[in-house]
Design brief:
The structure is a single chain. By secondary structure, the chain is an alpha+beta fold. The protein has one domain (28-124). It has helices at residues 2-21, 69-79, 114-124; strands at residues 32-37, 43-48, 53-58, 61-66, 93-98, 104-107. A six-stranded antiparallel sheet has the order 4-3-2-1-5-6, with helices on one face. The protein is globular and about 40 Å long. The N and C termini lie far apart (51 Å).
């Protein structure tokens, strides 16, 4: 019985370690995409998928996070509104895409707009800093 219990524990540990290290990459079209281009040439971007999985690129650094359902709902509500237009003199210049739609670039940073929320995500890795 001890051997059987030890075997079950070993299987459980191996399974949990495997699950932690081999999370599947998101696939398909991102629900939201944002690009941020600074005047010094620095580029950042975020791809947010419908299940909340997000891939952010800050220069050469890549980060992966998962947004909770309430934050995804906030993004969906903002995406239902018109994306404000920014100016080419903005620093940074934002580009925002919803689904497979056309990119709005430059996008404006009106409070609680989709561009402002995605910009906040790039800064803080959450919509609620």
């Amino acid at each position: 019985m001890k051997r059987f219990t030890a075997l079950l524990v070993a299987i459980a540990v191996a399974t949990s370690l495997g699950a932690c290290s081999s999370a599947a990459e998101p696939s398909g079209t991102p629900a939201y995409t944002v690009t941020r281009s600074w005047s010094n040439g620095y580029e950042e971007s975020a791809l947010v998928y419908a299940d909340g999985r997000s891939i952010m690129t800050h220069g050469q650094y890549i980060e992966r996070i998962t947004l909770p359902a309430d934050q995804m709902a906030t993004l969906a509500a903002a995406a239902a509104r018109e994306i404000p237009v920014g100016a080419n003199s903005d620093d940074p210049i934002l580009g925002v895409t919803v689904g497979a739609g056309e990119m709005v670039r430059p996008a404006g940073l009106e409070l609680d707009s989709l561009p402002e929320l995605l910009n906040r995500l790039l800064d803080s890795h959450t919509l609620n800093p």
